[in-house]
Automatic annotation (TrEMBL):
Coiled coil feature spans: none
GO cellular-component term (any): basolateral plasma membrane
Protein name per the record: Protein lin-7 homolog B
Keyword vocabulary terms for this entry: Cell junction, Cell membrane, Exocytosis, Membrane, Postsynaptic cell membrane, Protein transport, Synapse, Tight junction, Transport
Organism: Pipistrellus kuhlii
KW Cell membrane (keyword) present: yes
GO biological process, one term: exocytosis
Any Pfam family: PDZ
Amino acid sequence: MAALGEPVRLERDICRAIELLEKLQRSGEVPPQKLQALQRVLQSEFCNAVREATVAAFAASEGHSHPRVVELPKTEEGLGFNIMGGKEQNSPIYISRIIPGGIADRHGGLKRGDQLLSVNGVSVEGEHHEKAVELLKAAQGKVKLVVRYTPKVLEEMESRFEKMRSAKRRQQT
């Protein structure tokens, strides 16, 4: 059992269940075939996938999501998306637009609102916009992106930029 105030972890609970199954097997109180079948299920790829999906669903319900890896082929037509944000704008770097018919659109792995975390293993968290652009332009062959879907932050950032643009327009008139 988790101690009071200690977070409950699904993975730890599955490990604990396997330990208990092993103890039951040694006790001889339950037919070993049944326990072995249950143990195989708990250790299966299916159970692992269910665990990961459960964690992702809980995270998404709270407005967070797990990072995911998206690989895109780098062609002469580019990657098919635009980014915005960066250290100089005091914001993360985001996918602001997926170009219709472009590589990213055809691949389907990226979404508007994805935060760009790394490009080919190089972190762009807390970096200037230009660094991310340089890494994306320099990439050859396949481009491995690590992204996290956080559309609420993108909406807040776009709202802030629009307010700044409106203030500049008022100053110019």
